[in-house]
Amino acid sequence: MSSDYCPVYAPFFSVLGVACAMVFTGMGARFVTVRVTLSSLIVGLILAMTRHRSYGTAKSSVGISATSIIRPDLMVRLCIPVVMAGIIAIYGLVVSVVISDGLKPKMPPFTGMVQLGAGLAVGLSGLGVGFAIGIAGDAGVRGTGIQPRLFVEMMLILIFAEVLGIYGFIVALILNNKSKVDDIDTLCPSFATGSGMGWLKNQG
After folding, report:
1. Which sequence ranges are marked TM in the entry (predicted)?
2. Is the pLDDT reported for residue 36 higher than 50?
3. If you average pLDDT over every residue of the chain, what do you get?
């Protein structure tokens, strides 16, 4: 079923990259500890997407709720940090879909490792951006509630924080493009033939 150049565990690193891209970009205030198995990674991915809010959204929402009591007319304008925090998860979703599209049973470890790096690049940069937007957004909306002229300065700070996530997103896409191996059939000619489960292909 596998060879020295294309071991059977190689796709696991790509799946781990997909999980890292989504889990870290959608990371909340609490952390989910799972065992490093394929089923646990899928469970951790689902939990991170459904049960946990991102830190940026949660932190900014506290400031928005507190400021809206005093200045309810600024409620819509002050929701921008929450929107920008949500965009971070989109970066992770795009990279996860791109990596998942290239998942195949026959993969060299090089492809899996590079795709893992792509997931970590967008995931960890998104995690940092979430903390930056959460802290800066919380302080910004509270200050804007007292002095509305601070809104423009708050937006500039949030934009520069968001750009950090774009850097990780671009690096992840470049890494994923570099992970493709053209001569995979030459590199792994014995995959799914001869021994192992290859006999199933000849039953029909």
Report:
1. 7-26, 32-50, 78-99, 119-138, 150-175
2. no
3. 72
Beta-strand ranges (E) seen in the chain are none
Residue 154: name the closest of 171, 164, 142 by CA: 142
All domains of the chain in start order, with CATH: 10-181 (1.20.120.610)
The whole-angstrom separation of Cα 28 and Cα 12 is 25
118 closest CA partner among 16, 8, 47: 16
Residues 6 or more apart whose Cβ sits within 8 Å of residue 131: 55, 56
Q: For CA atoms 171, 109, 98, 184, give the dihedral sign.
A: positive
The answer to whether 10 and 108 have CB atoms below 8 angstroms apart is yes
Q: How far apart are alpha carbons 21 and 93 in whole angstroms?
A: 7
> Angle at which helices 10-25 and 80-101 pack, to 10 degrees?
170
Which residue bears the tokens 């992970």? Answer: 179
Q: What is the pLDDT of residues 67-123, one digit of tens each?
A: 878 888 888 888 888 888 888 888 888 888 888 887 777 777 778 888 888 888 888
Q: Give residue 35's pLDDT band: very low, low, confident or very high (50, 70, 90).
A: very low
Q: How far is residue 183's CA from residue 12's CA, in Å, rounded to a whole number?
A: 21
Please count the residues of the chain.
Answer: 204
